[in-house]
Amino acid sequence: MRWRLAFLGALLIPDLGLDPFRGGLLPAFRHPLGTDDLGRDALLRLLLASARSLGFASACALLALALGLLLGWHGRQLRGGLSALRSLPPLLFLLPLAAAAGGLSPAATWLLLGALLAPQLEPALRVRLDAFRRSSAWAAERTLGATWPSTLRRWAPWGWQQAAALFPSAWLAALWSEATLSTLGLGPGPGHDSLGRLLAEELPRLGSDPSPLGWAALAMVLGLAWRSAPAQGA
Amino acid sequence: MRRLAQGLLIWGLGLGLALGLPGAVWKGAAPPPFPWEALAPTALACGCLALLAPCLAWAGGPTLTGRRPLALLEAPPALLWGGLLLALWPATWGPPGAIAYLLAFLAAALPSEVRWLAQALPAEHPFPAAWGPVAVGRVRRIVLARLWGRWLAARLPLWLTATLVLERMLGRPGLGTDWLTRVALRDRRGLAVWVLVLALLWACSQGWEEAEA
Fold first, then answer.
1. Residues 29-68 of A with CB under 8 A from B
2. Distance of CA A204 to the CA centre of its chain
3. Distance, in angstroms, between B72 CA and closest chain A CA?
4. B78 and A180 in contact (C-beta within 8 Å)?
5. What is the DSSP letter of A192?
6. Between chains, do A99 and B180 touch, taking CB under 8 Å as contact?
7. What is the average per-residue pLDDT within B137-151?
8. A-chain residues within 8 Å CB-CB of B184?
9. Residue to substitute from A76, A77, A87, A130, interface B, most B β-carbons within 10 A
């Protein structure tokens, strides 16, 4: 989880400088993957865009887990509604919304994606929290009449530990959702460079006019997917 | 009953949202006709998936969930398969056709569906494994036959998302694109029909959800 959270810092890195007069250079010693059409070093751009995508996915997963914890604890009376929300895949809602709005800002994508992923995480979190609710530790807490702040101080780390076990799956769902939105040209605008945006630019010409950057972006997606696959299956 | 009412309330809100979708297209356009010509390829793709996934789950059994190769095939998003197809498709062959679309869709959706079904199969040790392979096969067949309808209802919206992504990437008209087009053209009635279909699918999958809870 920590290596994923480390990428949050990448969201603060400024964009690479543009130099259109050096656009479309072939791979060379100074530019191992060449340069893109706007003169940015392709390797640097690939690394920066991937790091930003990973950081964005971490931010979405954090929001989704925080909301999921709230739903898991307080949402027992709302199971029917949550089940209906879960039946709609986040992308099926986000894609038309982004198309209708002409694209979504990074903040809106973060909020919507986090909110849409939370009901998907709720059942797994509820199972963990319900086990705690039935435990003697929680009974003792209530019998002793502990105040909410002190309960939160004692049990928040435990709650977060439970949520952290689901972090990789939430992170992967957020990563692919944002990448898909951007690849289809509906994600955050040009100011938010990401792996999906890179694919959106490179995929259409990969068959006829391939560039090392396009292949490297595809390989990055494949590598991320395989790195994130559970060792023993799910 | 309470759960059903809550779910229907959510779908009612969705219906209200579809009927009251804000905005208007700058140039009045008639609602797009339903893409009947896309129905056959989509039905073929979903039909292949609906038959292949249970067959593979039946052949592999519950141990499939622990297989690393299946997890590796399941991990990439639909866009990767679409992207690879576009990248490897020879330009001289023209745009990818129905068969290529079908292959990309199966590559994107089949591994996760097989794992989903394999996870739903009961453990086989000590029984029915002790009764022999015939009994094991029979138990798997009975479980999968009982699951089939609810599995379809629960997973069809996900398949629709996969078709939407692939249709957009490969430039093919289809059911997923129809949903997107109706939002873009503010065809509120058409969207309401879509919401009702999704609500119906949710209602059909409810038995499974209760068993899961």
1. none
2. 24
3. 6
4. yes
5. S
6. yes
7. 92
8. 96, 99-100
9. A87
Structure tokens at B4: 């059903």
B75, A228 contact by CB (below 8 A): yes
Find residue A231's DSSP bridge partners.
A233
Question: In the structure, how many helices (H) and strands (E) does chain A have?
Answer: 10, 0
Question: Are residues B202 and B11 in contact, defined by beta-carbon separation less than 8 angstroms?
Answer: yes
Q: Least CA distance to B10: which residue of chain A?
A: A81
Q: In whole angstroms, what is the distance from residue B86 CA to residue A203 CA?
A: 7
Q: What is the residue type of B52?
A: L
Among the ranges given (A128-137, B131-140, B192-201), the one the predictor scored with the smallest mean pLDDT: A128-137
Residues 84-113 of A with CB under 8 A from B: 84-85, 87-89, 91-92, 95-97, 99-100
ipTM: 0.80
**Residue A187 DSSP SS3:** coil
Contact B144, B86 (CB under 8 A): no
State the pTM of this model. Answer: 0.85
CA distance B99 to B116: 25
The pair of three-digit structure tokens given for residue A82, joined into one six-digit string: 């949550």
Give how far B133 is from chain A: nearest CA, Å: 24
Cβ contact A180–B68 (<8 Å): no
Q: Residue A233 and residue B7: Cβ atoms within 8 Å?
A: no
d(CA A143, CA B97) in angstroms, rounded, equals 67
**Sequence-separated contacts (24+) of B154-159 with Cβ below 8 Å:** B154/A87, B154/B201, B154/B205, B154/B208, B154/B209, B155/B113, B155/B116, B156/B46, B156/B201, B157/A87, B157/A88, B157/A89, B157/A92, B157/B198, B157/B201, B158/A89, B158/B109, B159/B45, B159/B46, B159/B49, B159/B105, B159/B109
Helix, strand or coil for residue A41?
A: strand
Note the pLDDT tens digit of each residue in A58-73.
Answer: 999 999 999 998 898 8
Set of chain B residues whose Cβ sits within 8 Å of the Cβ of A228: 75
Nearest CA in chain B to A220: B80
Contacts with A116 from chain B: Cβ below 8 Å: none
Report which DSSP code applies to A233: B
Task: Please provide the size of chain A in residues.
Answer: 234
Mean pLDDT of B63-75: 86
A-chain residue closest to B160, CA distance: A92
Distance of alpha carbon A124 from alpha carbon B202, whole angstroms: 20
Closest CA to B56 of B44, B43, B65, B45: B65
